[in-house]
Amino acid sequence: MIEIRKIEPQDTYQIRKKVLREGIPLPFEFNGDLDKDTFHLGAFKDAKIIAVSSYMKAKNNNFRGTQYQLRGMATLKEFQGLGAGKIMMHKAYEILKDLHIDCLWCNARKIAVEFYQKQGMSTFGEKFDVEYIGEHYVMFKYLNE
Ligand SMILES: CC(C)(COP(=O)(O)OP(=O)(O)OC[C@H]1O[C@@H](n2cnc3c(N)ncnc32)[C@H](O)[C@@H]1OP(=O)(O)O)[C@@H](O)C(=O)NCCC(=O)NCCS
Q1: Is residue 115 helix, strand or coil?
Q2: For residue 88, which atom of ligand 1 is closest to its CA?
Q3: What does residue 40 show for φ and ψ, rounded to 5 degrees?
Q4: pLDDT tens digits, one per residue of 10-30
Q5: 140 in a domain, yes or no?
Q6: Is the residue at 136 inside a domain?
């Protein structure tokens, strides 16, 4: 069984490093990690943390209302495809709705677009390049639609 819990920012770093930063000379600590409005989720299987994601108050002018940005979504390779990412995102939707947040958005790696679409998110605009990582799309979901 996979269980989702709020975790400390530092608890995200190891999985971020391994899954999102291997061979990529970009920081694994994000501006906003420690902000009071930020929260971090971990997915646990048999008490082992297998996936992480972070949610930060951040405005994107393409969207309306109150907004959060999803960052650092990562599942350890050997645990991908078990539903951890999906369950974590749906937990985040609940938390954000309780906070009266209208819209969740993210900069999605192209390879993850289909995963996010399955969680109800849509792409916005043209693809763009992020140095060292590759093609991305802005994606978003209005939480009350
Ligand atoms: C993208 C990622 C976070 C998905 O996490 P996960 O825990 O493996 O995803 P889940 O098991 O919850 O998958 C949920 C659904 O999405 C699908 N899915 C997962 N990753 C996918 C991908 N890359 N492309 C297409 N579909 C994908 C699953 O097959 C599953 O489909 P189903 O509901 O029809 O069975 C994970 O693959 C990962 O860490 N990838 C590398 C890092 C990365 O790209 N992160 C995103 C940065 S923007």
Answers
A1: helix
A2: 12
A3: -125, 140
A4: 999 999 999 999 999 999 999
A5: no
A6: no
**Residue 58 maps to which CATH number?**
3.40.630.30
Average of pLDDT values for 105-127? Answer: 98
Distance 115 CA to ligand 1 centre (A): 5
Ligand 1 center to residue 79 CA distance, Å? 10
The answer to whether residue 89 scores a pLDDT higher than 90 is yes
Is residue 19 lining ligand 1, measured as CB closer than 6 Å? Answer: yes
* 16 domain-assigned: yes
Q: How confident is the model at residue 113 (pLDDT cuts 50, 70, 90)?
A: very high
Residue 32 lies in a domain: yes
**Which residues span the domain enclosing 66?**
2-105
User: What is the residue with the minimal CA distance to atom 9 of ligand 1?
Assistant: 85
Work out the pLDDT band at 106, boundaries 50, 70, 90.
very high
> For residue 54, which of 80, 79, 28 has the smallest C-alpha distance?
28
Domain total for the chain?
1
| pLDDT mean over 137-142 | 98
62 near 138, Cβ under 8 Å?
yes
C-alpha 86 – ligand 1 centre gap (Å): 8
What are residue 75's DSSP bridge partners? 51
